[in-house]
Write a structure and sequence with these properties.
- The chain is mainly beta.
- Helix content is about 15%, strand content about 45%.
- It is built from two helices and 13 strands; from the N terminus they run H-E-E-E-E-E-E-E-E-E-E-E-H-E-E.
- It has a seven-stranded mixed sheet. Strands 1, 3, 4, 6, 11 and 13 form a six-stranded antiparallel sheet that branches.
- A hairpin with a 5-residue loop joins strand 3 and strand 4.
- The longest helix is centred in the N-terminal third of the chain and has 22 residues.
- The termini are far apart.
- The N terminus is likely disordered.
Amino acid sequence: MFLFRLRKCSAMAAGLFTALLTFAPGALHAQEIVLGRFSAGDLTGWQPKSFEGETRYRLVKEQGGDTVLEAVSKATASGLVLERKIDLTKTPVLIWRWRIERPVNPPDELSKEGDDFAVRVYFLAPGAGWLSFPDSVVYVWASRQPAGSAWPNPYTKKAHMVAVDSGAAHAGQWRTHRRNMREDFKRYFGRDITEITHIAIMTDTDNSKLSARGWYGDIRVAPAGP
């Protein structure tokens, strides 16, 4: 009788635990890590990094009430960088959303003179070798290069560009993306990594001397899978 009661209590506890997991808010995304809490008006940890002048970043309210990060560049290039070690064996997937007013449309975005984008989201990983500089994969909204294309950064072999959106067809619309950082890094650098050290965003037009406006929603990392 005691064993029967014990089993019955264990079954009830297991059922209750399953129900709590099923209905608890956020339970299905318990392993996700939010890195950019822009919707909460929070820029904690995001530090400015200037290359040429200052792109203006500010938190703004959308018409629907959501808070997002707006970036305006006028012949400037500066970004926001978050220093954060991310274990890619647990959360290799980078998830973000962005929107642009219009593409930058420089003459040749594969050249140094055209290396400008209305929005960029990228990650940095330790370089190969003890004193090597970090390597980075840079996701961009391209002007002319088709979505899915990729190319080495014209300034450095330590960065590889990946067009995940392109052109003006979706300008003004929010676009959401998921990318497996570990797989992308191995694809473009030929090394398998288990950790990244920084996440960054940048809106820049310093090379073309043009202008751009873009918006960034929350940025997070998640386990692989659907």
